[in-house]
Amino acid sequence: MSGKRAQNAALLKLKCHYSLQKMLETRRFEEVKVMEICKEAAISKVTFFKYFVCKEELLRYSFRVWCFLLTIELKKNPIRGLEGVYFIFDRVSTDLQKRPSFFYALIAYQMNDERLQSPFPINKEERKNFISEKDYTEIPEIQSLQQMIENFVLEAVFDKELNYSNPAEICETLLILLYGNIVRMGMTKQFTPKFKSKQIVDRVLKTYK
Question: How many CB atoms lie under 10 A from the CB of residue 87?
């Protein structure tokens, strides 16, 4: 794909992403139709299906974008160790309140799909749309939510904030807590405030200190 075509493709996918995110502020994912996304993004259904097999693939793409934006934010404002763990839980809680359907639909789709889904690809041209050339000479790679937590846990162990010989177990526990909290909020419609989120994480991590 030529440079110009790659740029146009990146912009079209980005328009679909923003259209879906806007709709999910007030609607459930299952209520949103592909033709509505296309109308909001000012593209045809043929163009949409050129890049996404179904609207669920756009959902996965949007989550990958979310992870990339978080990666960029952490590069601009570096934090480490337990502070990073708290940051991840706070950010998920904050964004969950803004677009709950986004996270609920993502978890439901992943659970109902028998395949083990690999991260939806976002190429270099697409990533350029989210960063300023003056900030980065090279386009950063995307870190998944799991990778971010793993890095923060390893830093916490290295800095002796956590005293445990099995960081992988801590990461697994935190991921279970994170996704479990999202499911709980979806079932009860009660969102966890930041201070309470930190208390919950602290209670879990107390075992490893």
Answer: 17
Tell which residue, 76, 97, 114, 51, has the closest CA to residue 191.
97
The Cα 191–Cα 110 span in angstroms is 22
Task: Record the tokens describing residue 76, joined without a space.
Answer: 């601009």
pLDDT higher than 70, residue 1: no
Model confidence pLDDT, tens digit, residues 133-147: 666 667 778 889 999
**Taking the CB of residue 148, how many other CB atoms lie within 10 A of it?**
19
- CA gap 1, 89 in Å, rounded: 39
Q: Which amino acid is at 166?
A: N
Q: What is the 3-state secondary structure (H, E, C) of 155-183?
A: HHHHCCCCCCCCHHHHHHHHHHHHHHHHH
Tens digit of each residue's pLDDT (9 = 90 or more) over 28-77: 999 999 999 999 999 999 999 999 999 999 999 999 999 999 998 998 89
Compute the distance between CA of residue 118 and CA of residue 138 in angstroms, rounded to an integer.
24
